[in-house]
Amino acid sequence: MNSSTLAIHTNKARFGTQAIFLVCGLGISSWAPMVPYVKDRLGLDESSIGLLLLFLGAGAILMMPVTGWLISKLGSRRVILGATVVMSTALPLLLLMNSPVTMALMLFLFGSGVGSVDVAMNAHGVQVQNLSDKPIMSSLHGLFSVGGLLGSLGIGFLIRSGLEPLWAAVAISCLLVILMLSQYKVLLDADTEQQVMARFTTPPSETFRSKVSWLHGQVLFLGALCFASFLSEGAMLDWGAIFLRDTKGVEESLAGIGYAAFSVAMAVMRLLGDGIVSRISSATVVIAGSLIGVAGFGLLIFSPWLVVTLAGFVLVGIGAANIVPVFFSEGGRLRDVPSSVAIPAITTMGYAGQLAGPAILGFLAQRTSLPTAFGFTGLLLFLVAVAYFVKSKKN
Q1: d(CA 319, CA 333)
Q2: Which end of the chain is more exposed for a tag (fewer CB within 10 A), N or C?
């Protein structure tokens, strides 16, 4: 393959990968407007629906390491295909389950599809980035954020237009499959992916072969930083509205404005992120982004004015936006660790922060206060900045 043909193939693969990130964002966010319908259908209280939602997270987290093995055997393109079909099939079926047990099983299946797509698309995105030799991970995650905004708005629009929730979910599922199939052929095949991986990964030594790859120091380091970064996103998602209502006195109908401000800021910054990463070092992106996030938490905790509080949400979104894409990019270039091992490990640890982190914050808030719990989250982001600063000085 000559250089011009390779460039065309790489560009097509990049656009195809962007579409997959959009598909994943659409799929996950389309579930959120369905939660009230499921709650009413099954007659559940808040604690019961919260317990059910744990099965979604459990499916995602348990499938992530398995996905790494599947990628090494089948290639990420085939895994994306299968996982998208699973996610899209499970989405409308969630509205047909008539007992908590069957709902838990279907949520586990839906979460498994989501988790598998997430790992596979990030692994594929890293290889496309390596092949194109320029940053693309931030814009990929930006398309995921755009999908998150469009999914919740889209299914809400279909329902308000008179479509039954089940048929609205079917329509979204069909859209997900069509988008995925339309881009399948332009994604990197397994052989090309292996060649790119071999080019950018140092072959593991015999000593390393005897070790558990997940326990590699750099994998654990990036995973721990991802945990802290994802926890800040989970804090905004699960506690932002409650914080505005109970701490700042915002009326309930407007309490979601904080997360909306955070989401828009994050989406915009991720779409601009590739240009930023190409102009400044990844260390600057992580350190400055973390400190901007810390400043955001400071504003939203201590400001008595709603406008300034919302500016805090925006700053957290701006600061956190491009940190995780940098970690995934670095995970795809680790010495001695194939990306099919590093990316699932880092993703799993990160999503543990997003899923388990809000529970940790709830525990802290119950024993202290929600502002204190948010302060703890800001402290973790500050430690991310310090840790990455120390790492950058050693390299």
Answers
A1: 24
A2: C
| String of DSSP letters for 82-110 | HHHHHHHHHHHHTTT--SHHHHHHHHHHH
Q: How many CA atoms lie within 13 A of 298 on its CB side?
A: 10
The CATH superfamily assigned to 3-200 is MFS general substrate transporter like domains (1.20.1250.20)
Summarize the confidence of residues 21-31 as an average pLDDT: 88
Pick from 32, 23, 184: nearest CA to 94: 32
Q: CA 152, 155, 160, 165: dihedral to nearest 10 degrees?
A: -120
Residues 6+ apart with CB under 8 A from 190: 74, 75, 77, 78
Tokens of 88: 């899209």
**pLDDT confidence bin for 1, thresholds 50/70/90:** low
CATH class given for the domain over 213-394: mainly alpha
Identical fold between 3-200 and 213-394: yes
Work out the burial of residue 171: count CB atoms within 10 Å of its CB; fewer than 13 is exposed, 13-18 middle, 19 or more buried: middle
Q: Which of 55-59, 111-115, 212-216, 325-329 comes out lowest in average pLDDT?
A: 212-216
pLDDT tens string 366-377: 888 889 989 999
Confidence at residue 211, expressed as pLDDT on a 0 to 100 scale = 46
Domain boundaries, the chain: 3-200, 213-394
DSSP 218: H
